[in-house]
Amino acid sequence: MAALTIMARPTPDTPVKPSGLESFGILSDPSSKLERGSDESNNVETRVWATTLSQYKPDNRTAMMDCQLFYQAVMVGGFPRPTPGQCDDFREYATTEGGIVRPREAAMFLTQVLWESNGLRSKEEHVCAGNQCPGNYTTDNDFSYTEKQGDQTRTVVNQYYGRGYIQLTWSYNYLAASKSMYGDDRLYKNPQLVASDEMTAWRTSFWFWKQHVHDIKEVQDGQFGASTRAINGGLECDGPYQDKARLRFELYTKILKIVEPDTTPDPAGCYSVDSNTNTNTNTNGTSNSNSNS
Fold it and tell me: Which PANTHER family does the annotation name (predicted)?
């Protein structure tokens, strides 16, 4: 790999040499955070220029894609353009809290959260948003408290249905995420924070990914189905909803074509992929499986 030259940020009067790295999804300074509401950062203190761009390989690129690539990856699935703040949080936490350093894994993660959140438009499990699905995700260790209504006192038990962009469920996940992120039990005591706070919705999603998906060997080998199995395998890989797992993969195929166009998407790891099944990518990035069996 060619040597990298770290150069100070040019002054306003100095012509800026285009690095070309943005087209590879590489940020000038991955640690700098975008101003919310702005598509460009004014706080970049350093710029990394490659002496030979042609020597960059896809797997050497940082997962912290620039906002234009992020917007394209979201919208290629038919979803509306995300906000600059959503891009900001994705870039801020993908590596630090999700452990994601490769574009292919970033595409996997983005596919899964887009599927779970209807294109970053919902941070609550749809069927539970109204009645909170009492009894659906219940354990003996759920947090409860008492409250007074007039002369009456009642016990309220928190409901831990899916919240956040990856639809975090069960009280033990809320508690573990809270201790990891904040060192306390605030999300266990107030699970609605995962849905009401944008940053928390992202951070819990990356926390879940790092804890339950990132270290799976098949995921690191590029098997998208393995990430689906880790998230909803009981229903979509081994259960009656394999059609939904295939739709997830079709979405991933579109997103991967934007993020890492030279990489072939691999559906393995979830439902059975027949050796006689041909997976062809159309010009629009969708995947058609034609079984010969």
Answer: CHITINASE 12, CHITINASE-RELATED
